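To whoever is on call:

I kicked off a structure prediction for a single chain this morning and the downstream step that reads the tokens threw a length-mismatch warning. I double-checked the sequence; it's 406 residues and nothing unusual in it as far as I can see. Pasting both halves so you can look.
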Amino acid sequence: MPAGLAVLLLALLLSIQPVTTDLYLPALPGLTRSLGAPVAAGQLTLAALLLAFGGSQLLWGPLSDRFGRRPILLTGLVLYTLASVGNTLAADMNQLVLWRTLQGAAMGAVVMCARAIVRDLYTPLAGARAMSRALTGLGVIACLCAPIGGALAGWMGWRAALLALALYGSATLALVALRMPETLTRPDPLALQPARFLGNWALVLRSPTFWAFSLLTTASYGGLFTFLAASSFVYIEVLGLSRTQYGWMLLSTALFYLVGTLLCRRLLARLSVRRTVALGAVLSLSGGLLSLGAALAGWHSPGALLVPFYLFMLGHGIHQPCGQSGAVGPFPQAAGVASALNGFMMMLVAFAIGLWLGQALNATVWPLVGAVALWSVLLAAVAWTLVQRHGEPTPATSTAPAQERS
């Protein structure tokens, strides 16, 4: 597959996650009111999506190791498009939560395969660079999602924002069907047999490199998800931004994430993965603590709380390419399982955050700034300890017999 096509497809596949969340975030408060549901129910539409997204990857990963990436991708994109149409037509909050759950499960197939494809095509260090290029594309798409979602919600209502997801899914499905070849050259015919299945899980879970990078991506995503899940209520209903202004605010955070991915590529060209991650942690920790400091100083305004968070987003743009490629790097023979477990960890934490925020949001800024600061501290601790000890991916020993690996 040509390098340019590979990066384009990876960018579109990985972008399905921010498209699914960011496009509808500006409409979330209005959606909740329109369906006559409490704030906790509105948060559940996001939390259920992400729990299904994370949990489904545990199934999709072994399936992709057995049958290849392409059939799993096509299945996931078909289900995603159908679920997006169901979201648009939902008559009440229960139906919306159901369709969002199916949408999350389908999204799990897409994103899991994209991460596994990076390992199919690249060595670990080259994979980090390729992932940074793909996530730069994700940053561009994410920049467009929030203002488009805010404009659609303000112009035609929240259903229009959800319909846009169906259009994205169908367009990506067409491109994959027409241009995406199979990247797994040797599928494992025994991947679903209990002994091999459990052996691959044990192989991944025994790896300190996997844990170092997975905890890094989980802590970084925990801070981002806290912001995404809480910011529409805090910035619109507490700090007084309009839906359109909020959409532009999300655009600005996506821009800094995009710059972070570009910075990651520059750093990886000069430094090791470990030193790149360590520098990124300085940005993330500074952003979280400065946001908390601004709140403690009484500066409860959109600008005072948002500007420090830009530093966190710069760090996020560094940690996700390094972390996602590093977590699957040691496992060329079980990349699907490693990708699935890494994604499951991130989404399990996101689900817990969503449930907590449903109870913690209290018409103040404190749940948002306090939780982001906590995640920034945890992220820095992982980056400066575990990643420094175990952060150079080396191939793990396969559980397959030697004659099968030859």
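Update from on-call: the warning came from a stale cache, not from the record. Cleared it. Sanity check on the structure: The chain has 16 helices and no strands.
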